[in-house]
Design goal:
This protein is of the alpha/beta class. The protein has one domain: Rossmann fold (3-Layer(aba) Sandwich), CATH 3.40.50. Helices cover 29% and strands 13% of the residues. The chain has 7 helices and 10 strands. The strands form 3 sheets. Strands 4-3-2-5-6-7 form a 6-stranded mixed sheet, sandwiched between helices. A two-stranded antiparallel sheet has the order 1-8. Strand 2, helix 3 and strand 3 form a beta-alpha-beta unit. The longest helix has 18 residues.
C-alpha cells in the first residue's frame, strides 16, 4: 500500500478512484489555514447534532465540506476554563470514563480525532489540558456515522484544524473516530456502518497503528437528565455493543474508546450542547483519560 505524502495525494487519488471526482481542493489541502484553536462558544447551536430538543431541524442532507464561517465560529473564540462544580444535580452518580480498561500501549506521535459539533466545543480546552502537540482535530458539524461510512465522502478531505500535530500530521499513527447518528437505530445498522468506517480509515490512513471508536457523550449513568430530555444525551446499548463487536474483529488495531459521561446534568445547555462549565469538565475527562492512556 502506498504511504501518504505530506499532501495526502494518495488519499485524493483514492477518493477520485471511488467517485470519479477531481482531487483538486481535496485532502491535499487538509492542513491549509483553519484559523484559531480555541474552544467553541457555549450555549445551544443553531442546528445542534441532537434528536429531540433541537430548535432548528438539523441538516441531514450531508452537504459536503466544512463551512468556513462555521469553522471560524467554532474555533475563533475561547471560553474560560473553570473548575466544574462537583456533584450531580440530576440523576446521581459520577460516570466519567467508564470501562476504561488497562492503559493502552504505545506513545503515539500524532493522534487525529475526527469529530462533529460537540467535539469542537470542548477541543480547545482539551488541547490545553493534555499539554502537548500530539493531537489534532478534523471537524465536520453534522459528521454522522453513515456519512463517514462512504469512502467517497468529502468529509474525509476536511482540513486539520490548527494547530496540527507537531510531527506526522499528514500521517497520524492513531485515528480516533467519534460515532454519532440521528437515523441509525439498530445493532446491525451500527455494525455495518462502523465496519465501513474502519475499512475507510485503513485505506486512507495506512500509517494508523491504532483505530479508536468512541461513542458520543452520555448523561450521568446514561440516563436522561430532568433538565435535558434529548435522546441524544444517552447512548443506546446497541451502540456500545456495535463498537465493541467491530473492535473485537480487528484485535490489536481497532479498540473501543472510553465511555465519557458528563459528571453533572447542569453541564448540558440543551440538546447535546454543553455549557462553558460542561466544555471545561468534558475536556478534563478526556484529557485525564488520555494522559493515562497515551
Amino acid at each position: 500500500m502506498r504511504p501518504r505524502s505530506g499532501k495526502r495525494a494518495a488519499v485524493a487519488l483514492f477518493a477520485a478512484w471511488v467517485c470519479g471526482c477531481s482531487s483538486a481542493g481535496g485532502v491535499g489541502n487538509r492542513l491549509a489555514g483553519e484559523a484559531g484553536s480555541g474552544i467553541a462558544p457555549s450555549g445551544p447551536d443553531a442546528s445542534p447534532d441532537s434528536g429531540g430538543g433541537a430548535t432548528t431541524p438539523p441538516d441531514d442532507t450531508g452537504a459536503p465540506g466544512v463551512d468556513a464561517s462555521e469553522a471560524q465560529a467554532a474555533f475563533g473564540s475561547e471560553a474560560s476554563i473553570g473548575s466544574p462544580e462537583s456533584g450531580n444535580q440530576g440523576n446521581g452518580g459520577s460516570a466519567g470514563a467508564a470501562d476504561a480498561g488497562p492503559p493502552a500501549p504505545g506513545n503515539f506521535a500524532c493522534n487525529e480525532f475526527i469529530g462533529l459539533w460537540v467535539a469542537s466545543q470542548w477541543w480547545g480546552a482539551f488541547e490545553k489540558d493534555i499539554g502537548d502537540m500530539r493531537w489534532q482535530l478534523v471537524f465536520q458539524h453534522h459528521g454522522y456515522l453513515e456519512l463517514f461510512a462512504d469512502p467517497a465522502s468529502p468529509y474525509w478531505k476536511n482540513p486539520v484544524v490548527n494547530p496540527p500535530c507537531a510531527m506526522h500530521s499528514a500521517a497520524p499513527d492513531r485515528v480516533l473516530f467519534l460515532a454519532f447518528s440521528l437515523t441509525l437505530d439498530t445493532l446491525d445498522q451500527w455494525q455495518t456502518n462502523l465496519r465501513k468506517v474502519v475499512s475507510n480509515i485503513k485505506q486512507l490512513f495506512p500509517s494508523a497503528k491504532r483505530i479508536e471508536l468512541l461513542s458520543t457523550l452520555r448523561s450521568p449513568n446514561n440516563v436522561l437528565c430532568p433538565n435535558d430530555m434529548d435522546p441524544g444525551t444517552v447512548v443506546a446499548p446497541y451502540v456500545d455493543q456495535a463498537i465493541q463487536t467491530v473492535a473485537d474483529e480487528s484485535p490489536g488495531l481497532v479498540v473501543a474508546g472510553p465511555k465519557i459521561a458528563v459528571t453533572d446534568c447542569t453541564w448540558w445547555a440543551g440538546g447535546t450542547d454543553l455549557t462553558a462549565q460542561g466544555n471545561a469538565g468534558v475536556a478534563r475527562l478526556y484529557a485525564d483519560y488520555y494522559k493515562t492512556n497515551p
